[in-house]
Amino acid sequence: MTQATVEFQPEIQARTISELQEQARQQMLTYGFYFDGLFDTSGKRIDFCGRQGDRRKTEWYIASLDTDSKGRQWLRVTYNSHHDTLKSDKNYTFNSTTGASLNDHELNEQKARVAAMQQKRQQEQGVEERKQQEKAKTDRDRFNKASDEGQSTYLSRKQVGAHGIRFEKTGNEAVILVPMRDENGEIQALQEIYETKRTFWNETKPRDKNFTNAVKGLFHVIGNIVDGQLIRVSEGYSTSVSCYESTECTAPHVVAFSAGAYKTIIPILRKQYPNSFISICADNNVRDNPEEENTGVREAERAAKETDRCFVVYPIFPEGKERDEEGNRYADFNDLMIAEGKEEVRMQIENTTYSNDTEEAESLIDGQSENEYDSTDISKATANARRRAITNQVTLDDIIRDIRKQHPTLKDQAKDIATKALSWAKNFQTGFEIIVNGIPKTITDMKSLDSRLAQLEAPGQPCVIVNRKDALPITNADYNKRLSGEVVVVGVNEKGQPKYVAANKFWEGNTHKHIYRNIVFTNKQTNKNDYNLFTGFGVEPKQGNCEKILNHIKDVVCSGNKTNNTALLKLLAWQMQNIGRPSRIITGLQSIEQQVGKGCLLGDVLAPIYGNAGFTTSDIGQIIGRFNDTIRGKAFIFLDECLFAGDRKAADAIKSLATATRIGVESKGVPTVQFPCAANIFLSTNHPDAAHIEEADARYWILEVKPHRKGDTNYFEKLYAEINGGGLSAFMHYLLNLDVREFVPQRDVPIDNEAKNTMIRNSINPYDARKWLEDCCHTHMILGCTPREEYKQAGYRWEFWKKGEEYENGVFFTAYAEWLKNVKSPVAPKPTAANNFGALLNTAGFESRRDAQRRRTLPDPSECLKKVTEMLESKGKK
Fold first, then answer.
1. What predicted TM-score, i.e. pTM, was given to this entire model?
2. What is the domain partition of the chain in residue ranges?
3. Check: CATH 3.30.470.20 for 547-761?
4. Is 254 a residue whose pLDDT tops 90?
5. How far apart are CA 600 and CA 585, in angstroms?
6. Using an 8 Å Cβ cutoff, are 29 and 121 in contact?
7. With contact defined as beta carbons under 8 Å apart, do 32 and 51 qualify?
8. Closest Cα partner for 220 from 254, 261, 193, 188?
9. DSSP calls for 67-119
10. What is the Rg, in whole angstroms, of the alpha carbon atoms belonging to the chain?
11. Which helix (H) or strand (E) holds 178?
12. Exposure class string for 727-750: b at 16+ Cβ within 10 A, else e
């Protein structure tokens, strides 16, 4: 503004540049041209969208700003249209200098022309409105006829789902129809989204989206809006769905179809839902030319500034990842979702670093307004006092001294400022709930976070976050979700208002967070850098009475066998006293009958004592499956009817686990980590073939549980009364104080007994030739051998076994091979090899005659059965 202009202050106040621009816009409006921006007065021709509801730039203007000799500025605007609706043979002109020079006759003529144009425009507008109404009805019918099921490569490309949209088939292409509704919920237009880009009428740049009608004030809602609950708004369908799905559909999302639409849609939402917070998830249109405006953020912030309880979030892309493969800049939350995943979108929307941009009233809890602190010294003193009160453990006198030292002029007000600061800070302590950008959050601090979390950085292992309370590694997604409702107060801003940081960002980036350097599994003393998988027993040991538990073990579990009773008690004591060392013994409690008391010891006594260090399951997959994190930190594993003799794979895995000292543990979403392992395994079964046990197996100890207490209600009521009345603590105390210094589990446990031998025998593969011979002896038939004619006519399927008859050597192996075809078993076939078959027949008493025919003689079936039985039993006794 020049000095000459300033001399004309009265006239300038009446005719400012902004007023001149508004006058020009009003004149244009009378002729039907809609323009709500600022004129570019450089004299260049500017194209713009001047017809309401039309996005095409078919109108133009040329504007210039002149200054007269007295320093007064005058605006001239020439404008017209290429479209028949507004086009004039003579250009329209606004000239602010003519306003003062028109005589009465000229003014009346101008008013008449303006009135005529207004009337014409109203008529045209009425015609246009009727056309829009008719088109809206057509769009509603079209939408209702379209299918609510379909697929589109657009959705696949954007990695989003269908929410309230419909599909229409056009040739080989699916067209998405997005309903555009007014504030009454009525469809007034459709957005068409095509799978491929095409050029529309009077345009040169291809695009894949099109609007069927005027769009002002129209939007699409994803989810259900409830007054008082958070509403999110975004620009575009795919961006809105990306935000909606990434935040697990926790808040409804409104689709605004352009950034400029915020200024009309946000006021509509505020009017309809006066008690809801509104979050605008804006596009971040960063430009390569820093002088160009960020349209998405600019329009969103303008709308938020004019609306109470409305705030803006926008995507931040990691350094070096701001562009796609073609070099185009990423801009919206859909770009962020595709590039970084849904969890990153959720985290940025819900867990952004907060600084109270909206300056909400709760930060001034004493009811004072900011005007009380208009004085610069008082404002600074108040902010500093609050900073000390909220971040440090200080007394009232400490803050008073600081104020008087830094602000000597406030000596008399120091106590009042300090008192109010301490009172204010009480509302921002750990555990308090506050509202941050419209979302309830709980205040936490580093001490609380560090008591729950730690970072594991063991040598040779991937870095993971672990939960300190249960020694459980957690995924990054789980970590973010756990802390999504918490913030840390990190100070105050220059106005004395609190500044917050999302808890996950605060702890993750803090150099003082707890870090584990080593992984151990022990009940012995460890140092603070050791990540101990053992988090403690589930029961506190106390001296007391546990006679009924001890008697149950001796009389029922060990069937009165003193040797087994002593060994079992010492084994249990050794295992409990040596967490982190495997006993290498798999203890099985077996009984033919149910409800005899096996589960009492394993499930009701030992499992509660071990607590988090114990694990009970009837699904073997939880132990030997790919995701085996259930065995992490487990010293006691109770398998309840998990195995059967034919499951060799499970048997091998269990035996390996029983002797392992280290094992790779994998959780979903967490890298595989090698952990110390010391699992003492117990199994309970009602079957004699509960596990596959091989010959000479030194790991299994099978105890045959005595069933004489089955149905004895009085006995079990007294037993459980002791268990629930302090017996667990007493039994634990007994085991922890039992002397096992000289006890060696693999040496001192009497693993060989009849119950184990029976299980070994039942573990023999059902396809074994010894099983074939056993069946032949029982039936007195050569099973699998085609009968001679007289037996066949009599209806027999196989050849009779007659002592002393001779057969060619190959007959028996052929018969055995035929018998194998009839074996039905879930166990994988493992037949006896041909080179071992002859030795088996020799042992079973099949005498051979070595002549040209190589024949064998059938022994007495009863004698043969005895020898086969001896072979099977000897297998179990090895």
1. 0.48
2. 3-101, 153-350, 361-516, 547-761, 765-877
3. no
4. yes
5. 20
6. no
7. yes
8. 254
9. E-TTS-EEEEEEEEESSTTT--SS-EEEEGGGGGT--HHHHHHHHHHHHHHHH
10. 43
11. strand 173-181
12. bbbbbbbbbeeeebeebebeeebe
- Sheet with 636-640, strands from edge to edge, namely 614-617, 636-640, 680-685, 586-590, 700-704
**CA end-to-end span of the chain, whole Å?**
109
Dihedral sign of CA atoms 179, 182, 183, 185 in order: negative
In DSSP terms, 443 is beta-bridged to 487
Q: Exposed, middle or buried by CB within 10 Å (0-12, 13-18, 19+), for 443?
A: buried
3-state secondary structure of 519: strand
Give CA angle at 637 (632, 641), nearest 5°.
Answer: 130
**At residue 570, does pLDDT exceed 90?**
yes
Would 153-350 and 547-761 be classified into the same CATH topology?
Answer: no
pLDDT reading at 828 higher than 90: no
Task: Report domain 153-350's class.
Answer: alpha beta
Q: How far apart are CA 785 and CA 304, in angstroms?
A: 92
Lowest mean pLDDT among 35-44, 275-284, 355-364, 720-729: 355-364
Q: Is the dihedral of CA 321, 325, 331, 334 positive or negative?
A: negative
pLDDT at 668 over 80: no
Per the prediction, the chain carries an average pLDDT of: 82
C-alpha angle 21/27/31, rounded to 5°? 140
State how far the Cα of 255 lies from the Cα of 221, in Å rounded to an integer: 6
**DSSP secondary structure letter of residue 323:** B
Query: What letter does residue 592 receive in the DSSP assignment?
Result: S
Question: Which run of H or of E encompasses 601?
Answer: helix 598-601
Q: CA 22 to CA 14: how far, in whole Å?
A: 12
**What pLDDT sits at residue 370?**
39
Query: For position 200, what pLDDT does the model report?
Result: 78
Model pLDDT, residue 193? 94
Smallest CA-to-CA distance from 338 within 355, 319, 323 is with 323
Q: What mean pLDDT do residues 561-587 have?
A: 92
Please check whether residue 49 is in contact with residue 55, taking contact to mean a CB–CB distance below 8 angstroms. Answer: yes
**CA-wise closest residue to 609 among 536, 551, 658:** 536
Is a pLDDT exceeding 80 seen at residue 112?
no
Q: What is the 3-state secondary structure (H, E, C) of 274-288?
A: CCCCEEEECCCCCCC
In this predicted structure, what is the pLDDT of residue 528?
84
Q: Which H/E stretch holds residue 872? A: helix 861-877
What is the pairing mode between strands 73-81 and 92-95?
antiparallel
- Cβ–Cβ under 8 Å, residues 229 and 243: no
d(CA 312, CA 293): 17
Dihedral (CA of 356, 361, 367, 368) sign: positive
- pLDDT at residue number 429: 82
